[in-house]
Write the structure tokens for this entry.
Amino acid sequence: MYNIALSFVAGFAVFLLTSLWLGPIPAVVPGLLVTGVTLYLLARRIGQLVEAEMAALVPLMQERKVDEAKAKLEAIKQQYGRWQLLLEGQMDAQVGMIDYLQMKFDEALPRLEKGRYRNWTALACIGCIHWRKGRKDDAWKAFEEAHAAGPKDPIFYLLWATLLHRDGKRTEALQALDHGLKAMPGNQTLLDLQRTIANKKQVSTKHFPQTWYQFFPEDMAKQMIMRGRKGPMPEGAPQMPQQPRIGASRAPRR
């Protein structure tokens, strides 16, 4: 990655210059400091440029210009992918999520796999695909990996627990909700689902947040068919799940 290479070049240059003056041992600290600062500043700059480009995706998705949105992501990947560590995978995951929302699950899976590192939304989508295909062990592994990424969104734990419950894993579903309540104590939506499962009642997703449809867009399609003669759908149509911030926050700590 260009950011890392340039940072090490800058740090090494400072190390050489300082070692000529103070010797090699005292030169280590300023060399490392310059490497870290340069990496941070470059990562921050590239992150700002990428985020500015990504802002154009929102209107494209709202206007259903899917091909243009995917072309935009590919262009960002080509322009900045070699600069920022993990950026190419993040762009692939974004394209995969567009395919996922179109219910092109077989096409989405390899793209999502490329951007799965510490990306709970991509991992949750991967888990849902495996669950649909009957690969339950792979599904639960993906959800465990997503949980390790530390999501702070209740929809993840609602999704995880609901699929476990549908698979007859009531105890595991309650454990998934416990994880969510540790991350978000007192969350009423999680508490409601916990009470429903603990009391062995039927789980209905109708009262879940609209973000449920980001992971099960077919449910939205079914509702649209059912509501075809009853009026328009409520607000909250599926959009691309939010991605981790790209930039300095992804850079290694000094």
Notes: The radius of gyration is 22 Å. Residues 57 and 69 are 6 Å apart (CA to CA).
